[in-house]
Amino acid sequence: MSWQARTLPSEISGLDIVVATRRDEHGELLVRELQRTRSRVRHEWPAPERMPEDADVLFCDLAPGLPGRLPWVPGEPKAALVVIIPVVPPPDLDLLRNCAADAVLHRPFTSHAVLVALVQARSRFGYEQRLRWRVDKLDETLRSIRAVERAKAILVSTRNMREEEAYHFLRRQAMDRRLSISAVAAAIVDSHEILS
Asked: What is the pTM of this model?
């Protein structure tokens, strides 16, 4: 039974996919296979100077300058990227690494290889997005902890409080004002820096 006859994973149907590869028989096959996932597929060739920003997945030929054509800051992708590798010549591995692809698809394509590349790219992209979100939350928590520690130190030095008293003061102020402790701490740090 072919993959088209089975139920597709929900994360790969209804996507907006851009295909930037030659309009040869392989490129047309790729587009047809991707359309079978019930996704919107745009075949753009020649490859645009800047890839579209509104895509969920980009399928792009590995070509010089590809990293500069991607519509995001390196390390902060906005879409899953599948890099298409030619049969010959051997791929430029440094270029491939600089693209930070979520999956690789080798020519000539097969139905199964297209589906596997799409699922892998979406899965890896989603995983990395979750990791980035966790890192951002950890950064925010670290900034909050630093602000609270700095505010406690300011209260200890300016109001002659013990550390525990300073922390309870921050908590009371936060509860009275219906703010987070970190917001109160940041306000204390900011006002101290202005007055210093």
From this structure: 0.75
